[in-house]
Specification:
seven-stranded mixed sheet, four-stranded antiparallel sheet, Aspartate Aminotransferase, domain 2, alpha/beta, 2 domains
């Protein structure tokens, strides 16, 4: 049994999440407040004891650990030569956009979506072409007519797909992925699938890798994966880029090396190998704990502020809260709650689409902290309503 109830003080640790004022409680960025698996800590401590931290190669064990994990956990076989190391999923996405598309091209994004996608696209001189997801009865779905129009645009060359989806927590089905893949192939659009949240799936559910559903999808896609989200090791700067298509792979390898994001640090390698070889029991218990947290949030919000509805989801540790009954300006609401209660949430506006009426809540923390955050949230919503 692992202890996820342990409260860890992260103040004054150069934490992006916890660089906050006194009495503020951050529950925004996708960073867990749990210690990583003790097996990873032990492996890193052993590496530190060696005392020399020079340039690092990527050993066969790194490839083997990833291949074994995806076969065991996701029933998907990965060839060794499909995998390329990168210092993170975001650097990989930025590099891939630059290498596969041209300046002025359109990159389609299903919105609301992870806001950094927009940075990777627009900072490279490309254009975001939004395909808004359909929202109905606390659930998101794809409007395929709108998607096909976006893909058929002569300037569209890429679709960035988030699987499972951030911020909505949606798990895409095999049938949905097949439809998306067929439309992209028909319109000569390459799919870049960000699957960093794929191991954060509620008990009893499973995710489908984009490249696994057909030869067509496999050969017309690039997938970014990492242990960083599921094992809370994002600060170690590590990810893998999965590229089955040889001609696409050659371009990406050249790009990753040109951008100087293809060389690992020694801790990234050790942590990834250990996570995938020895972290499964820890992850299983983590997922059950997060699932219990999700139930706590649903129950408390339903009984105290029923005007806030929660989007149905079974992936990630992020909850997407519909605040449309009290506001259409999530920036304003987010700032108000922080000022009144010290609770820091993510405003949905930055995710585009219909995010302007949503907030995103990170529930990857111990239950006492979660209950504190929910008490502040209830207080903030009630005070906000009084001001309206």
């Amino acid at each position: 049994m692992y202890n996820f109830d342990k409260l860890i003080n992260r103040l004054n640790t150069n934490s992006l999440k916890w660089d906050v004022k006194e009495n503020e409680l951050p529950m925004w960025v996708a960073d867990m407040d749990f210690m990583t698996a003790p097996e990873i800590i032990e492996a890193l401590a052993h590496r530190v004891e060696h005392g020399i931290f020079g340039y690092t190669i990527i050993p066969d064990q790194w490839y083997d650990a990833i291949i074994s994990w995806w076969e065991r956990r996701h029933q998907f076989h990965i060839e060794k030569n499909w995998l390329q190391f990168c210092t993170g999923v975001v650097p990989a996405i930025s590099c891939i956009v630059k290498r596969i598309t041209n300046i002025g091209d359109n990159v389609v994004v299903l919105t609301p979506a992870y806001n950094i996608f927009f940075n990777s696209i627009e900072n490279s001189g490309r254009h975001v072409l939004e395909c808004p997801l359909t929202y109905n009865n606390e659930k998101y779905s794809i409007d395929y007519d709108t998607l096909e129009k976006a893909l058929a645009n002569p300037l569209t060359t890429m679709l960035i797909f988030c699987n499972p989806h951030n911020p909505t927590g949606n798990i895409w089905t095999k049938e949905e992925i097949l439809k998306i893949g067929a439309l992209c192939k028909k319109n000569n659009v390459i799919v870049l699938s960000d699957e960093i949240h794929c191991d954060l799936i509620s008990p009893g559910y499973s995710y489908t890798p984009f490249a696994s559903v057909s030869e067509e999808c496999m050969n017309n896609s690039i997938t970014c994966i990492s242990a960083s989200k599921a094992f809370n090791i994002a600060g170690l700067q590590s990810s893998s880029v999965l590229i089955p298509n040889q001609s696409i792979r050659d371009k990406i390898i050249r790009g990753l090396n040109s951008d100087e994001v293809a060389e690992p640090n020694c801790f990234a390698i050790e942590a990834t190998i250990t996570a995938f070889n020895h972290g499964e029991k820890w992850l299983i218990e983590l997922l059950e704990y997060i699932n219990q947290n999700r139930k706590i949030v649903k129950n408390i919000i339903k009984n105290n502020i029923p005007e806030i509805s929660i989007v149905d989801s079974n992936a990630t540790y992020l909850m997407w809260l519909d605040c449309s009954k009290i506001t259409n300006d999530s920036d304003e609401l987010c700032e108000f709650i922080r000022e009144k209660t010290g609770l820091i949430l993510s405003s949905g506006k930055q995710f585009r689409g219909n995010g302007y009426k949503f907030l995103r809540l990170n529930i990857a923390c111990n239950k006492l902290q979660l209950e504190d955050g929910l008490s502040r949230f209830i207080e903030g919503i009630r005070e906000y309503k009084k001001q309206r």
